[in-house]
Design a protein that fits this description.
The protein has a single domain (about 5-85), classed as Methane Monooxygenase Hydroxylase, Chain G, domain 1. It has helices at about 5-40, 45-65, 70-85. The longest helix is centred in the N-terminal third of the chain and has 37 residues, at about 5-40. By secondary structure, the protein is an all-alpha fold.
Length: about 90
């Protein structure tokens, strides 16, 4: 347990940030899972719609500072490949 006042504040801020980051990370994961479900169903129209949604969620997470931009780019790239494989 922290003794100094500033350390006590940091504990509170760290907890608030942890909850905020967890919210955004789970939101990203859920968006990707929904996209993968659409790919499993081989529904091209639904998959492209969910791809746009997932890319938007990942971009917002990057802006919020939760996910690194290269990580988001890598995930968006793999999602786009899976959707593209449906149309081929």
């Amino acid at each position: 347990m922290p003794n100094k006042r500033s350390a006590k504040k940091r504990v509170l801020v760290a907890e608030k940030n942890r909850i905020y980051n967890r919210f955004w990370k789970s939101r990203c994961k859920n968006a990707v899972k929904k996209l993968l479900e659409a790919v499993e169903l081989k529904d091209t129209e639904l998959a492209t719609k969910r791809l746009n949604e997932a890319q938007g969620v990942l971009d917002k997470a990057v802006i919020k500072g939760v996910v690194h931009r290269n990580t988001a780019a890598r995930r968006k790239s793999t999602m786009a490949e899976k959707v593209k494989s449906l149309s081929v």
